[in-house]
Design brief:
Length: 75
């Protein structure tokens, strides 16, 4: 399963989700701008992650809109 940590008003987050939807790739998104997701935000901060989207998929993770990495999910 693919999980994306996103923030409100994040163009790269929207681009990543649009790319996945256009290819019918299922994903879960966690909006770290939502106060109810404070634990997930703390988890990201503890790992030094400062950029969204933060994508976790197939044992790999990265920040930002990365079509090159996303394309590897289709292989």
């Amino acid at each position: 399963m693919l999980t994306i940590y996103i923030k409100d008003n994040c163009p790269q987050c929207h681009a990543t989700m649009r790319w996945l939807r256009e290819r019918d790739i299922p994903f879960d998104s966690i909006n770290i701008s939502d106060p109810s997701n404070a634990k997930q935000l703390a988890w990201l901060r503890a790992r030094g992650i400062k950029q969204t989207p933060y994508v976790v998929a197939a044992g790999e993770s990265w920040s930002g809109f990365r079509p090159d990495k996303l394309s590897k999910l289709l292989e």
